[in-house]
Backbone:
């Protein structure tokens, strides 16, 4: 029977049945629809009344451009080595362990500026489920191996390859690149990252074909 969006809502809700705060990860290649799926899930789960689900994207742990320039990695922005993976893993652990205390602030990412912004996302103690999404949640190399143990489940968001590339190009154009620049960036950088992420698919707890769930 095909997976439905209602199935995903039910599965996500069940992660909190143990009574503590749960963290759900959504992985997948660039442009696969991770953010869209996460946003739809959070909206559906929160419904009406006091929100009990928070959305904390991995993108807030991008290294700033000034640091990428220092490291000589500006042209690889978006690759695993251009994120503060240790900081991201530490935040996930903190979110699990400090579920009854004060607000935990997570960094956000400003798409127009293409820069991380500290303290942009508040996670209140009332949040019993945190949905986090990013490319490298299932990566099994280096510091990224610290991420998995902090997640209750990881879903892999999958999309038809041609559509995924089309969306990537359109996204880069939306935030200021010319069509030629967008295509070049996708071919040089995004596709290289996508191949790496595709190799992590088998480690996911669930594969979500995004076009089939209405998001």
Residues:
């Amino acid at each position: 029977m095909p997976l439905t969006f209602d199935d995903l809502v039910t599965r996500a809700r069940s992660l909190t049945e143990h009574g503590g705060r749960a963290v759900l990860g959504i992985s997948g290649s660039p442009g696969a629809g991770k953010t869209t799926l996460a946003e739809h899930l959070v909206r559906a789960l929160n419904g009406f009344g006091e929100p009990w689900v928070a959305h904390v994207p991995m993108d807030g742990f991008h290294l700033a451009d000034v640091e990428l320039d220092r490291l000589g990695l500006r042209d690889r922005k978006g690759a695993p080595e251009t994120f503060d993976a240790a900081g991201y893993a530490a935040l996930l652990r903190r979110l699990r362990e400090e579920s009854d205390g004060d607000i935990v602030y997570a960094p956000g990412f400003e798409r127009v500026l293409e820069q991380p912004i500290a303290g942009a996302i508040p996670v209140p103690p009332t949040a019993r489920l945190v949905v986090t999404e990013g490319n490298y949640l299932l990566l099994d190399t280096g510091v990224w191996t610290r991420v998995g143990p902090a997640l209750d489940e990881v879903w892999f968001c999958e999309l038809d390859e041609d559509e995924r590339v089309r969306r990537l190009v359109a996204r880069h154009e939306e935030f200021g690149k010319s069509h030629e620049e967008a295509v070049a960036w996708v071919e040089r950088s995004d596709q290289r990252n996508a191949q790496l992420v595709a190799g992590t698919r088998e480690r996911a707890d669930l594969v979500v074909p995004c076009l089939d769930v209405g998001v």
Remarks:
- The longest strand covers residues 115-123.
- The chain has one domain: 19-209.
- Residues 179-198 form the longest helix (20 residues).
- DSSP finds six helices and seven strands in the chain.
